[in-house]
Specification:
heterodimer, A: 3-stranded antiparallel beta sheet, 22% strand, globular, B: mainly alpha, Arc Repressor Mutant, subunit A, 3-stranded antiparallel beta sheet, 4 helices
Chain lengths: 176, 113
Amino acid sequence: MKKTIYKLYWAWQFDKEEKWLNECSAKGLHLCDVGLLRYTFEEGLPGAYSHKLELLNNWPSHPESVAYIRFLEDTGVEMVGSYARWVYFRKKSDLGKFDLFSDLDSRINHLNRILVLFVPLMFLELLIGIINVIFPRTLNQSIGSLNLLIGLLLAYGTYEILKKRNQLKKERMIYE
Amino acid sequence: MQDFTNSALTEAVYYILLSLKNPLHGYGIMQHVEKISKGRVRLAAGTLYGAINSLLEKNWVKALNNSEDSRKKDYQITDLGLNALHKEIERLQELVENGLNLLQENNDEKDNL
């Protein structure tokens, strides 16, 4: 039996998303496909998988991503689906604890990758939004407010990721 | 470029190099490291992949051309990598000696009180 759930994904909460997927899996609902706002689950044995999300450097079909995903597959990791450059991975729980990163540097790198995605988009949206709100005649003002809203959401996301990164950087002063 | 020859290796790099005296694939490295560290060090696949790529770039390890039917790529340490490993072991020895000496001195002082 398949079950589809529609929900928003806030990329700065990727760790919460992983937790949610693990909770679904614990109830016997295993993610088998993702798309825009759409999550398709398959029923199975409860608690069979743990999940991780990663923003790749390239789109999943890029040769570098393909090589990386293949490397992960050799270690028992499966790619469940992807949305843009976000990839959903899972690993059978009985193969042991599932982590993509085991040191602070690679975790910080991943957060940096997310920031590189967010920050330019945030400035662009805010700029377009402000221009359209100040000069309402040039374009539609409601579109301007929408840009502004997206820009502010991205600003919040950037703040959340920076908070996570600072925490790790503080640890990095002492640990590896 | 800055000279890093006196710098510390990361634990991941150190243990990866130690695992590659004989050819081994990624998953084999993870298992080997976990075994020799008695379960303390568990390299995650993403971190391992990044480290191997950096080591390949530096020519500290090389990828071996496997037969086409085998999917898994094997890696092996190079002379450059061995050299780095020897230097790191010397550095670690210095750390351990200094640490033990200092703790020993502290203990002696306590005994004399």
